[in-house]
Amino acid sequence: MPSEQRQRGLKRMSEVYGFDLPNLTDDPFFEVTVDHLFGDIWNRPGLSMRDRRLLLLGAIVAQGHSEIAEIQVGAALRNGELDADQLREIAVFLAHYVGWPAATKLDGVIRKTLAKDKKK
């Protein structure tokens, strides 16, 4: 049986990503990610899931990780944290702070994710 911290981390990780993840054992990186990042950091008081998602999107876009942004945009839509108009506005806003190329990638990710959503 996983520890209370592992259970809390797996639950939050599932909420963040919008799908269940397996409980990997004997994987130090996974253990730190689940137990500390999702078990502790994502469960701290003071910020909502939406607040954390907005911060995460800004950080990801600033670092140029559009492949990770795709996961986060999809999860934000599935979880009802952000809608299509808000996501588009985030791309416009971030263009002025992280640069047009990075925001253009995010805009492409948003368009792609919204198109996939319409097909469902």
From TrEMBL:
Residues 29-106 form the Carboxymuconolactone decarboxylase-like domain. Pfam families: CMD. Coiled coil: none annotated. GO terms for molecular function: peroxiredoxin activity. SUPFAM superfamilies: AhpD-like (SSF69118). PANTHER family: 4-CARBOXYMUCONOLACTONE DECARBOXYLASE FAMILY PROTEIN (PTHR33570), CARBOXYMUCONOLACTONE DECARBOXYLASE-LIKE DOMAIN-CONTAINING PROTEIN (PTHR33570:SF2). This is Carboxymuconolactone decarboxylase family protein. It comes from Nocardia aurantiaca.
